[in-house]
Known about the structure:
The relative contact order is 0.17. The protein has one domain (5-117, 156-175). It is built from six helices and no strands. Helix 1 crosses helix 3 and helix 3 crosses helix 6 (160-175). The chain is mainly α and 176 residues long. The chain starts with a helix and ends with a helix. Helix content is 84%, strand content 0%. The longest helix is centred in the first third of the chain and has 42 residues, at 30-71.
Amino acid sequence: xxYGGLExxxxxxxxxxxxxxxRTRHIPNWIPVSGAVLGLALQMWHGGLQGGLTSIAGxxxxxxxxxxxxxxxxxxxxxxxxxxxxxALVGPSALIIVFVFTGLLxxxxxxxxxxxxxxxxxxxxxxxxxxxxxxxxxxxHARAVTAxxxxxxxxxxxxxxxxxxxxxxxxxxxxH
Length: 176
């Protein structure tokens, strides 16, 4: 398996972000900002203006995908910024694959943690209610469900930066 500069930077960015998120439940801004800047620079280095546009499109897509989850209170701003930086590094097409892997791994991790804590049924009910409200564009209700879950001291919280890292690394392994 041969990696180029983008893949190496992507690996470093997501591993460092995951490590910080697991340790502190926070992703410092310097991590996604560095990833986005390096992604833009490397994409432009390899592809000129088109590479730069690819990087910007990937960053915008990553931001747009996770922003609603942040607005609903289900994810931190660091996760949104990290996914945007991943988009800047890989571009929009590859980001879709990262998103699918991240979603699958996040759902699997949440299910395992919920089952381990004996809260699988409750978690599935809350998730269903949240999805139903979001699907009907009942944002206030969706935010209330998320806020109630977050206010619970027993709430299950995943360091989603680690899940994003796993999705990004899995996508690299599959592509190479």
